[in-house]
Amino acid sequence: MEGGVLVSTQVSALFPSAQATSIPVQTSRRNAPLPPPPTESDPPVEHALDSVVFHSDVTGTILLRVIHAGLIVELISLTHDLPPIRFVFPAPVLSSPALFFWQPNELHLIVVTKTASLYRLILPARDSTRLWNDTLGRNWCREHLIKNAPGHTLSVARIQSTYSVAVALEQGSVIRLEATYIGDEVEDGEWSEYIHSHGSIFSAITSLIPSRHSVEPNSSDVVAMTSCPQPSEIENVWTLSRDRTLRAWSPKSGCISAKTIPSTSTSRALTPAPGAITPAKPTPLLADEPQKLIRAFEYENHVYVLAFIPTPSSTSSGGLFHLSEQISDQLITGFSLESSSTSVHCQLYDFVVVGTSLHTLWGRQGQSIVESVEWDWGKVKKNAPFMGQWAACTYPQESELTPSYLDELLLTPGSMTAKFYEATMRPGVFSPLTLRSALEAYTISCLSLPGVPPPQLTTPYATLGENIAAVVGCTVRLTRDPQTGAQQHDRYWNALKRDWEGFIARCREVERMARWPLALGLGSAGDLVVVERERVGIRVGEDLPLRLHRLLSSSIAMEPQYGLMEILWTLKTKIGTQTMLTLEDRLTSMVQHVAFPYADVILDQSQRTFFRTDLDEADDSWITGRLQSIDDLDQAIRFGLDILGGLTNNEVKLEEEEVELLLPTTESEWSRGLTASFIGITVNARYDLCLTIIALLHFLAEDLGDWDPSLLAEVLVVFRGLAMLRYVARQTAGDSEQDTLGDPDDFVSRMRNMNVSQSRTRSLPVYSLLHRLLPRSWGQKGLIESAHHFLDSTGLLQSVSPAHATRSEVVYCERLRLLGYLEVAGELLAWLPRTPGVTYVVARLWLDSGRADDAAALLDGLAARFGPDGALALEDRDAFAAVLPNASLLDSDFSFYLHLRELFRAASATHHEVHASQLALSVAPPGGDNSELWYKVIKGLTELGAYDDAYAALAASPYDKLKRECVTELVHRMCEENAVEKLVSFNFAGFNTEVEDALSFNARNADPRVRPFYSRILYTWYVTRGDYRNAALVMYQRARKLATLAAEPSNFVPMAELQMEAYLGAINALSLVDQKVAWIAIPLAAESNYAPRKRRKLSRHIPEGLYAPGRRDIEIVSVGDIHYDYTVLLAQLELTKADPTFIVGPGLLSTPSAIVMRLAQLNKFNTAMSIARSLDVDMTELFVHLATQCLKLSRHPNSIPESDTSDWLLTDRVSSWPGTPADRGWRYLRQSLERHDSPDTDFKYTKTTLETILSYDRLTPPPPWLIQILEDYHHEYLIRTALRYELFEDALEYISTLIKKSGNKLAREPPKHSSSTWLPYTLIDQVLVACRSLEKPSSKCANLQQHLEVELSNRVKRMPKLSQFSR
After folding, report:
1. What is the model's pTM?
2. Where do the domains of the chain lie?
């Protein structure tokens, strides 16, 4: 019988460890030893050490795995999509834990640990779709400490049932544990223990007598133990020890029978057990680790025990199966069966008996092999001759990533890194666990290199694929030749290739350990489940292409109707590998050359690849002769294409004959994974077979001109479909991580388990792309039927010519695009001709990839396909309609342009959305409402910054309401993009009000500090249109807003500068208005904090209409008012720059006089005087301070520090004056008085300066120029001041000067009236009286007094004469 094929999935791909729920199991045993740490030679901890398959109608199929060096027992549901659950035990468990379904709704997991603890874990099974996802009950973990175990070594355990457990000790002893009470939610239950030994008094005595043999130590240790599968009433257990002794044990009596099994087939009967004389030369012992070498089963009310004895040194088989029957307390000799010849040097890992079938699991160089044979146990019992034949079942042949295979990949053009990466990431080649383990080892080795590690080794990555692509080869550097300085590219590529080969070698080593076979089991509908360390699969039948591929690969003769396939396979093997790879690489372009005859295209490719010249002459002649033996080559090729392109009746019959194992009705991820794996292997087989037909076409290229063109087209289209399917089968669906913190159930679970701080991300399963594409449920179909149904549903094998793309092909590519697999969809579309449907999908693909320009070019060309003049073929019409909205063809180009507009909008391709809208408007039917299209055109052009086009579209739009809505958007956008110059250049005829309203609203409400500055833009708008009054109003209001923001000390300087700029703008605008009406009116809000100054006279117009609703007071602001505000602000700003500690606030140095005085205190005399002059502020205190500074300079010439930055001495003009600082200071004071003091001010600043000097030190003579000014204009004040400060000599001198000046004047001009001769005689008398009152006047004072009295006497005498003369 045919053995079928093994199909499996990787556990870590479907059930990542991060998704499993881990539950620790506690122990009551004290001082339990810790397990030893793993070593480097150990396999990855996630690889299973043991496995059991459990199945029931309620729970479905459950996979039990022992991982992490025996510390963790993991349960995985293969029937339902549930997250795995893991139980972490305090000590390693013994082999073969057991799972039982306990009525009505419980699962019992029974485990024995090496520290002699027996655990019963009660798991919920109320809902088969949830199982352990439900909350665990109270006392779900029940532990029993085995009392008779301390001091013994536990080797093998057999969980016979929920009530019975047998544990093997050293020297072949057995402990039987029988449950008298399984426990409840409070108590753990009770177990009775019975310890049995296989020895007897006779055997003990005879073992002391010298004999011809010596017993090997530990030869009685049990290596295998079995019992009848449940449910069963047989309570016995059977053990097999290292010396090949088979023993039967009853619960109460212990060892009831024993037989020694021979290691060869020459002995038909079993030798007696201990007590008999052994051969002179003892046979080798079995290995000491636990093994699955015996199985007990019931058949037709008989109990049989089947034991396997390996024969490692045999060259004919891997071992012998010995059958024994248990009758009462006796083991009766049975029949021996030799394993198949293919099992030579193989190791048996497990075997099961199902009815009359024996299924064995072998391991050959790390590869699993399942062999089956039919064995009628009733006939065997009667010693009937055995007529069965072993049927082998293996995994399909796959390319291993050896160095030679990697070299073959480099024979075709392309990136080396991309080729190696693609080969590594193919589904089924390496599991995610293998890749992670190899990558971790590779990273550790790179980090151990001397020097600074590359950043790629320490950077976190989102996916495993990104991590591999970034890390592998990151230590390779492009070096230069030390002698020539040339870059050594060859060395770089060789080093990079070695790096990738090293990483792939690590992956192969880990994957070899991952594929180590473990166990066989029965799943749903009796299917045979094959479990490996990292894979779990089933045995299925072969479809015809797989069977042919296997037979051709193994050079096994086939039926005559497949003779052509044998010839073509020989042709393919005779052609060089490089030639075939080159041919494959060129086939894509060859299939697309639909504009030329296929015979010419194939001939051209054959000549280019030198196809036939690569064959030896003998091979060429042999193949030519064999082809001539084919009667009808055309029919034979069509027959082969029928095999490759779909199902045949023979295949369906094959499935019915082999009773194809059915998957569950509800497809689980594991079932879908198996289907995807089968699709991948059958597609690979079909592709290889199709390549042989392609090779035939190139071999007969010169004769193809006489062939039927439809046959060539059919060959190429079948190859196209298989190549597309093969490419999809080699792609993964991607690996990623998801954040689960947002899941309420997950968060509550973490809070309950106090694991909130654990990683927030969980790895998602890593599926193949085929897995993703498979539907959730096929109904009640077998695996092969489901796989073939999927192949047919793709439609890739239904085409008849490469010149056409069927509806199914286009829809399949569109589905890939919709699922987000853009690169895969692009590769498949490259095989198809550019029909309208394909062109549309390509355009959508480019649109999704960000290539909007390329997509628009394709889509624009499709518009002509719609409407009555579209001229679409029926097939193209159906394919095109299938990928359009609602799966129907659009009625006109107008509808198509509307559809394009939606596509470009979804892709945020505004430019093309506008273009599609414009095209739609150009072909829009009359009478329709196209306001939405106009709106999109105007808005899109505005967003693109095409303001000229947007304005033109706005002007052309026939909808006034739409225009008014779009004007505001256009204005806002142009302001935001700083297109003010273009904005003010537009006319906006009829929409000026809307523009001004939009700008005014934003100028009032927008932050004046943030761009765009709407107040400035509105100011420019008004100025451009000659509305200077409104322009000034806008800038003045901006200054007001900035003034409120300047209240914060940190914002004062920048806000003040902006405010000054606004004041200047307002002043400039009002300067262009007639000065008679140079004012603006602003509303005066009652709650305004900007109160007008007292000096400003506000004009208030209070008509009767003022009290109407909505009316407010207004304030009239003139140019002078704005000048005043500007000057005050300038003074504040200068003061702040000079003194950063100055803070402007209400009532704090906010008056002009206070500001001027503060500037004077800071020696900012130029600024202070200028501001005081502008604001008409009295400068008395300023000159007092300036005079004081001059006096200090005169008194202390070196008192000016180098850091003094006062502007009155260190300016360019003052610093250029000659003399000392005191001289420059007095000169500065003199010029300041000349500039700011005059008869208009009554020289009050000069008087103040004099008084300041005298107050500082009355004995210090004032500057002569100061006395001269007062003598010229205020002589009387000068005398009074001298008298007040008791400067009598100066007063007498000033009087003398006054009298002399008056006399000179009278001499020049006779008096015209009586006041012309007036002198302050009263003041003079006061001075003379004061001088006379001095006790000891100075000689100078006395002389001046005497001289003055004489002058006064003479003047008095002359006055009458002058009076007479004047008459």
Report:
1. 0.77
2. 20-29+43-345, 403-514, 542-732+769-798, 736-766, 1175-1263, 1274-1367
